[in-house]
Amino acid sequence: MSTTAQTTQTLLRQKLGDQQYERLAALDNPKLHAFVAEAIALCDPASVFVCTDDPKDIAYVREQAVAKGEETRLAIAGHTVHLDGFSDQGCDRGATKYLVPAGDDLGKRLSTIDRNEGLAQIRGYLQGAMAGRLPVLPLRRSANRLLLRRPQRGLAVPDGV
C-alpha cells in the first residue's frame, strides 16, 4: 500500500469509525476512497454517516433532517419535504459563474471564471464548512454490491470514480 493510500485509509478510519469505515471499504474503489478522504480533509466534518439502502439507515437520515429543521414531515407516514429558500444559489443568476478553461468565453449573458481560479474559490468556501457536522455519504445495494448513490443534491461525484 502506498503512503497516499495509507494516509487515505488512516483518515477514513479516523473520521468514519469502524462500522462506517467497513461500509465504505466494501466498495473496492481506491479512487472513491481518495475522493471521500479529500472531501473529509477539506470540509473537516466531526464524522461521516455512510447510509446504505437499509430502511433503518434511511429512517435515521430522515429523522436527523427533521430534527435539524432541514425537512418537514408530511401527513403521509414516513414522508418528508425539503423546500429550498429564495436565496439558494441556484436562484441567483447574477452570482452563478460557469467554470471554463482559460481563454474560453460563453458569451456576455453568462458569467464565467477560469476553471482553476473558480475551483480554488470553491475550495476556500468549503474549507472547514462541515466542522462539527455529520454529512451523509449515500450508498445503495445492487446485485449484492454496494454502489455510490448519486445524490440529487449535495456532494457531486467526479467522472471516473
Could you explain how this protein is built, in words?
This protein is an alpha/beta fold and 161 residues long. The protein has one domain (3-148). It has helices at 3-25, 30-43, 55-67, 115-126; strands at 49-51, 72-73, 80-81, 98-100, 112-114, 136-142, 145-148. The strands form three sheets. Strands 1-6-7 form a three-stranded mixed β-sheet. A two-stranded antiparallel ribbon has the order 2-3. Strand 6 and strand 7 (145-148) form a beta hairpin. Helix 1 (3-25) packs across helix 2 (30-43). The chain is flat, with a radius of gyration of 18 Å. The relative contact order is 0.16. The model is unreliable at 150-161 (pLDDT under 50).
Task: Give the topology.
Layout: H1 3-25, H2 30-43, E1 49-51, H3 55-67, E2 72-73, E3 80-81, E4 98-100, E5 112-114, H4 115-126, E6 136-142, E7 145-148
Parallel strand pairs: 1-6, 4-5
Antiparallel strand pairs: 2-3, 6-7
Helix pairs in contact: 1-2
What would you report as the Rg, rounded to the nearest angstrom? 18 Å
Helices and strands, in order, run as: HHEHEEEEHEE
Helix residue percentage: 25-40%
| Low-confidence region ranges | 150-161
Q: Multimeric state of these chains?
A: single chain
Number of strands: 7
Strand content is: 5-15%
Q: Would you tell me the overall average pLDDT? A: 82
What is the rounded distance between the termini?
19 Å
Give me the side-by-side strand order of the main sheet: 1-6-7
Largest sheet: 3 strands, mixed
Q: What's the number of structural domains? A: 1
- Specify the structural class: alpha/beta
State the shape.
flat
Number of helices: 4
